[in-house]
Design brief:
The complex is a heterotrimer. Chain A is mainly alpha-helical. Helix content of chain A is 60%, strand content 6%. In chain A, strands 1-2 form a two-stranded antiparallel sheet. Chain B is an alpha/beta fold. In chain B, β12 and β13 form a beta hairpin. The longest helix of chain B is centred in the middle third of the chain and has 14 residues, at 162-175. Chain B starts with a strand and ends with a helix. The chains are: A mainly alpha, B alpha/beta, C mainly alpha.
Chain lengths: 124, 288, 219
């Protein structure tokens, strides 16, 4: 596991942790049930405030990436295969909505758009 | 969150200095840095907490208990490190330990030995033969050997080289692995806090300027840089402190978003360090 | 609180040896002063040890450490007063060791063991002295009180001598012999008990003053 903190970055430190852990989970480097370092342990290792790591973990928890079992620690959440799919779909959906809006404004029909999608999917 | 240390409207007057109704709280499990320039009231506050000075008003609660009513019980659970050596210089480190140890209910010689070893301190050296850095480490070993819940330190890093200071910060990090423990320490070397502190309380001229989590402070404060044409009586008001030169200005604001809304894209905003915040606040009025 | 008394002794290990040496010195130096050597020796040793224990605390401002420990200020003051008795004991032991050694090795010096009278007079003198200077030290600290203490210590040496010279003056000797007559009508134990009671009262009174002072002391 690798977490790199840039003090000079504009991104708050807790966001840097959230982003890097999210990436590891999305890319499958961390899988469901994997234990994460403790909030206090991570703070010590990274030489940052306990409040910062705590905030990062709380955010990851809210997004459903991790779970915290009191007294045991934090783990990569079990349901996250579903969640991952959803997350990934979210990204695609967002782009597609953009494409649809563009198509609508140019009076391109649904069939035409679907054909275009089929064509492009084969080509790319 | 339970507060391990709670200071409310604390007052103390001397001939030439007054601590003006200061309030702050440190939750259990965290490190609070107490910063401010020399003479701001840091030592006075710590001495009041330890009841070495008598307060004129206000309340101090440690472990949720009045610090005078439960003085003995509280002090049994506090470790202290002061900026100067107050131990008996002619005694060896071991002799001094034997003098202090019996006063604590839960003193543990094994813990003491472990710290002495960790700090590479000799047990049969006289205290006066120790270097400044070694004296601080010795004080720390003495402060931690009764397994205190709250460690109070007054300027522990002043006069120490960066290596020893970083060692000290590592130890604080280790200590705080136990979520029941807290550290309260004063310093004028703010870079010690940039890393390890969870909370920062900033005192200046006997008043608390701010007391918040370090993350909140660093997320909200900003150093705004721009051209002199942006400044007028109205816009200057957003700055806590400002520094002008021939090519433009740099000023500290406590609300980055507000500054951005005000100046739009005509400025750049830099992340401040705690030192920036301290320096701009203290020198602020002279430069506006 | 007992830890505080033990602390003062631990810190003064070397001073105890010095006290013993001092007793030897007095045994030789005061051999001409009949009857007062044990009293003088013990009083000086107690004075020295108490002052020294305050001096150690003043150095490096160790009082800051003491007052940061889990002990009440009352215990700190009380311990100092109780240590007076410990030091009287130590002083007498030191003096006994000195006299015994002189006797055993048959040094041709006249020596006396301390008796009941010596012990009670020592107690009275030491109590009187400490009752006056302890509140002062608790108020202003050892260093500032030092000169005052020295002056007082010397007075304690000269006043008895003055009294002794009065005794020889025929103008007063009748009155003094009346007093001594009354005193001698009591048994030694009665006098000892009376002196001890006066000493304790003095100490208690002084302790109350010191406590009031020290409770509000700032460091």
């Amino acid at each position: 596991m690798k977490i790199i903190i840039l003090n000079s970055s504009d991104e708050p430190i807790y966001r840097q942790i959230v982003r890097q852990l999210e990436e590891m989970i999305l890319k499958g480097r961390l899988v469901a049930g994997d234990a994460l370092p403790s909030i206090r342990g991570l703070a010590r290792e990274l030489h940052i405030s306990v409040i910062t790591t705590k905030r990062a973990y709380e955010e990851l928890e809210r997004e459903g990436f991790i779970e915290t079992v009191p007294g045991k620690g934090s783990f990569v959440a079990a349901q996250n295969r579903e969640l991952l799919r959803e997350k990934r779909l979210d990204i695609v959906e967002e782009r597609l909505i953009g494409a649809i809006l563009a198509a609508k404004s140019l009076d391109i029909s649904q069939d035409e758009l679907i054909n275009l999608l089929h064509q492009l999917y084969e080509e790319v | 969150m339970e507060n391990i240390l709670e200071v409310t409207r604390l007052k103390k007057s001397f001939k030439d200095f007054t601590l003006k109704d200061i309030s702050f709280a440190l939750p259990r499990g965290y490190i609070m840095g107490f910063i401010g320039p020399n003479g701001a009231g840091k030592s006075t506050t710590i001495k009041l907490i330890m009841n070495l000075l008598k307060k004129d008003g206000g309340q101090i609660k440690v472990f949720d208990k009045d610090h005078i009513k439960y003085e003995k019980e509280i002090k049994n659970r506090i470790g202290f490190v002061y900026d100067e050596n107050h131990f008996y210089e002619e005694l060896t480190t071991r002799e001094m330990k034997s003098v202090i140890a019996p006063f604590y209910e839960s003193w543990d010689d094994k813990t003491f030995d472990r710290y002495m070893k960790h700090f590479k301190l000799s047990t049969n050296k006289k205290i006066k033969e120790l270097s400044k850095g070694m004296k601080m480490k010795y004080s720390l070993a003495m402060a931690l050997s009764h397994n205190p819940e709250l460690l109070i330190m007054d300027e522990p890093t002043s006069g120490l080289d960066p290596i020893v200071r970083s060692e000290l910060l590592d130890i604080l990090g280790d200590l705080i692995q136990d979520e029941n423990k807290s550290v309260f320490f004063s310093t004028h070397i703010t870079s010690d806090l940039d890393k390890v502190a969870d909370f920062v309380t900033f005192i200046h001229d006997g008043s608390i300027i701010l007391s918040a989590t370090k993350d909140d402070i660093l997320d909200n404060y900003g150093i705004v840089k721009g051209g002199m044409d942006l400044l007028n009586d109205q816009t200057q008001k957003v700055f806590i402190g400002i520094r002008k030169n021939n090519y433009g200005f740099e000023g500290l604001v406590d609300d980055r978003k507000k500054a951005r809304n005000l100046f739009r894209d005509n400025i750049v905003i830099d992340k401040p360090s705690l030192e920036d915040i301290m320096v701009y606040t203290v020198r602020g009025d002279q430069h506006v | 609180m007992y830890n505080l008394i033990i602390k003062d002794i631990l810190v003064q290990k070397k001073s105890l040896l010095f006290a013993l040496g001092y007793c030897f010195f007095l045994v030789f130096a005061f051999q001409s002063l009949e009857g007062v050597t044990p009293i003088a020796a013990s009083t000086v040793v107690v004075y020295f040890l108490i002052q020294n224990s305050f001096a150690y605390e003043d150095k490096n401002k160790s009082e800051i450490i003491i007052n940061s420990l889990p002990i009440s200020r009352k215990e700190i003051v009380l311990a100092k007063y109780l240590s007076i008795f410990v030091y009287i004991g130590l002083a007498i032991v030191a003096y006994m060791i000195a006299t015994l050694t002189v006797k055993v090795v048959r040094v041709p010096v006249k020596v006396e063991f301390p008796d009941l009278k010596d012990v009670t007079i020592t107690l009275l003198l030491v109590s009187l002295m400490n009752s006056i200077y302890m509140p002062i030290i608790f108020r202003i600290g050892y260093l500032k009180a030092k000169i005052f203490n020295m002056v007082m210590f010397l007075l304690f040496f000269f006043i008895p001598m003055g009294v002794a010279s009065l005794y020889e003056n025929p103008k007063y000797s009748a009155g003094i012999s009346d007093i001594t007559g009354i005193i001698s009508s009591f048994s030694d134990w009665q006098i000892a008990a009376l002196l001890a009671a006066i000493s304790l009262m003095l100490l208690f009174f002084s302790y109350s003053i010191s406590l009031g002072i020290y409770k509000n002391r700032e460091f």
